[in-house]
Specification:
The protein is of the alpha/beta class. It has two domains: about 130 residues, HprK N-terminal domain-like (Udp-n-acetylmuramoylalanyl-d-glutamate--2,6- Diaminopimelate Ligase, Chain: A, domain 1, 3-Layer(aba) Sandwich), CATH 3.40.1390; about 160 residues, P-loop containing nucleotide triphosphate hydrolases (Rossmann fold, 3-Layer(aba) Sandwich), CATH 3.40.50. The protein contains ten helices and 18 strands. The strands form four sheets. The protein has a six-stranded mixed sheet, covered by helices on one side. The protein has a five-stranded antiparallel sheet with strand order 1-7-11-12-15, with no helix packed on it. It has a five-stranded mixed sheet with strand order 2-6-5-4-3.
């Protein structure tokens, strides 16, 4: 890969709302003008103690979620006291407030939203379910990301990133595999991020999503040609295939005992170097490498098995010669 750039995403309330609209049943109640506030911590906070007046360890950088308990407590207060408690919360420069269980906002909240520039959201979800799901979304949104040059496909459940110099044939290999049932994730530029489980997730950049550039043909829209099953929105990266010139790498390691890995965003990914030479069917080679990786994950190592068999034969021969 020629260039790699790593950055940590800055998550705004607008981004969180867009990402959580469907999975979190999240919608805006008030304060659209303030949606570009940054959310600086990924955890979700339930401000029980702050509503009672204790702010010493208040996590004001987090999304503030008012659930059934918080709403019941505020309802038990007089109008004046409730207004004072909510004002003390809103003035702490919090990124936003989310009302869980589809609770209606208190009458004072829209005015406080405008005064302190704090957007108000709501969700139908039970509070604990929202907190868990929203935390995962926030971790994914704020995870370190990078863009790498390479074409990403999914073939028989294996996520394969094909990298190499321009003109090496990455897109042509991917196209051949798509015609055999593989699915395109991205072409030319691949976006990577680490999800909450520690897996490396690959996807396309928005501009080129579902498109490929084939030399001599031009830009093609893959699902229009091969159907919707020929593309994936995102896929875990399992294997890196590096196309190289013969002799530039130690590709003559034919027994497969020495396995290379590629470090991406702190995750080690198995890497296979494939020399490019005239007449080689590289699509078959990449397909075989992907299937071999799948077998290795399942515990079957062909090189090790053959080595053990040869050693057994040699041992029996040595005993027979005695």
């Amino acid at each position: 890969m020629d260039k790699e750039s790593i950055k940590r995403s800055s998550v705004t309330v607008r981004t969180f709302l867009a990402e959580g609209a469907r999975p979190l049943s999240l919608e805006l109640v008030h304060g659209e003008r303030w949606l570009d506030h940054s959310i600086r911590e990924t955890a979700i906070h339930r401000p029980g103690l702050p509503l009672a007046g204790f702010f010493r360890y208040f996590a004001h950088r987090r999304i503030q979620c008012l659930g059934l308990a918080e709403a019941a407590y505020l309802s038990s207060l007089s109008d004046e006291e409730r207004r004072g408690r909510l004002r003390a919360l809103f003035q702490k420069k919090i990124p936003c407030v989310v009302m869980a269980r589809n609770r209606h906002v208190f009458p004072e909240m829209p005015g406080l939203s405008d005064e302190f520039r704090v957007p108000i959201l709501k969700t139908k979800m039970i509070t604990k379910h929202f907190v868990n799901a929203a935390t995962i979304i926030m971790e994914n949104l704020s995870a370190p990301r990078m863009k790498v040059q390479g074409t990403m496909i999914e073939h028989m459940g294996v996520g394969v990133l094909i990298e190499g110099k321009p003109g090496a044939g990455k897109s042509e290999i991917a196209l051949a595999l798509i015609m055999r049932g593989a699915a395109l994730v991205s072409d030319d530029i691949t976006a990577l991020r680490v999800d909450s489980s520690g897996a490396l997730i690959a996807s396309a950049v928005d501009v080129t999503r579902y498109h490929m550039e084939i030399r001599g043909v031009g830009i093609v829209h893959v699902p229009s040609l091969f159907g919707v099953a020929s593309v994936r929105g995102a896929k875990k990266l399992d294997l890196v295939i590096s196309l190289c010139a013969p002799g530039t790498r130690d590709e003559d390691n034919r027994d497969g005992e020495v396995r290379s890995t590629r470090g991406l965003l702190g995750v080690e990914v198995p890497q296979v170097y494939v020399p490019v030479a005239p007449g080689r069917d590289l699509a078959n080679v990449v397909e075989t490498a992907a299937l071999d990786h799948k077998l290795r994950v399942l515990g079957h190592d062909a090189a090790k098995e053959l080595d053990e068999r040869l050693m057994s034969i040699i041992s029996r021969g040595a005993v027979g010669s005695d």
